[in-house]
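Protein fold
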Amino acid sequence: MRDMSEKYIYIIGIALCMVTLVLTSCSSDSTDNAEDSHAKQRVLHLIAGRQTYSDMTVNTRQPFSVGTGGDAVNYDVLTTPESSLRVYITTSGRLDFYGDFAYEKAEGSDTYSWTKTVPLDNDNYYIYGFMPSSLMSTTTIEPYSGNNYANGAILTIGNAPSLMTDDFSAIVGVKRAPSKAGNIASAEMQRGSYEYEVTRADADNYIYLLLDHVYANLRFTMAVDETYAQLRSIHLKEFTITPTTPKFNVKATLIPGTATTLTPVFTPTGTGTGTTQTLWEGSKDMDIALNKTTDAAPTLLYGTADYQNFYIAPSESNAEFTITCRYDVCDRNGNLIRKDCEASNKLSFSGLSLKPGDRLTVPLIVMPTYLYVLSEPDLDSPAIKVN
C-alpha cells in the first residue's frame, strides 16, 4: 500500500523565544532640518560603534561584561555602508537639527565616513538617534521631562515591522573630540552620556557614538538525521520566515546618567501576519546540500553575504513564526528523486525572554519519525511532512 511506503520527515526546531525593538524620531519629513540657518557651518564626523551581540542557547545566556576601558570595549566599529543613521541634535529646550548620516565616500575621496555639514552655534547640545533611518516616517521625539532635552528624550516609532532585515539600533552614548582620537574602543565612553559641547572655533568636530540593539538577532542551522541521510540527501533551495504578529509600536526612553541597556516598550499593532522575509534563495543551478547530524558541524545558514540577517522584536507577542523550506530530494549517488518539495514549520519562541541585543541560533534537524526498510522504488517517492 502506498501509505505504508511513505516516510515522514520532521524538521524539529528547538523552542526558543525572542525579545527587542525600539527607536523613534521626530518628523516625517525626509529632508534635513536646521532650526537656525545662520549658525556656523560645522563638518561633523561620526565614529560609530554598535553593541556586540550576546549569544544564547536554550538554557544559558552569555553575560554582558564591562571592561576597564568603558562600555566601548563591548562595541564593534560600524564601518559598513548600511542604512543611514538618523540623528537629532537638540539644545536644552528645542530640536536644532535632524537629518541622516550615511556611511559613504566624501566627494573626491576613496575613504568612507559618516560625515555631514550641519549649522551649529557654540552651545551644549544633546544628541539622540537611531538606525535605520527608513523608520523615520512614523517616529517622534520629545523631551523626557520639563521640556528640556538635557533631561533626556523619548523616542517613539509606530508600526515597526516585527521582523526586519536591518539591525534596529539606537544611540545610547555620545562623546565629542576636536580631532579623531582613535578607534571607538579607545574613546572610553559610557552609556547614558548624550551631551555634545561646541565651544571651539574650528569647523570640524568628531563625535563618537555608541549604539545599542533594539531587536534581537535570529539565525539558523540545519542538519539531516543520520538515519535518513544513509538513504537520501536534502538539497535546500529556499528558506523563508513569516511572523504571526505584523507590527509593533515601540517606545524608548533615553535618560542621561542611565548606563543600563535599553528597555524599550513594545505594543503589538496591526492585523494579519507579518511580512515574509527570505533567508536564502538559490539560483537555477545552486542549492545547499545539508550536512548530517554526525558531521563535524551542521549547515550554517548565516555568516556570509549569501544569507539575509534577521532581526526580531523581542516581545512575548512576537513568539510565533512559520518557516517554509523548498528543497530537492536526491539518492545516495546525488541523482534527483523529487524536485521542489515544500514544507512549512511552526516555530514557537514563547518563554525564552529574549532581550534587545540577544543573538539566538536555532538548530533545525530534518529527521523521520520512522523509516521503513523497503525496496528502492518505495524510497524514490517519499512523502515529506514538516512539523
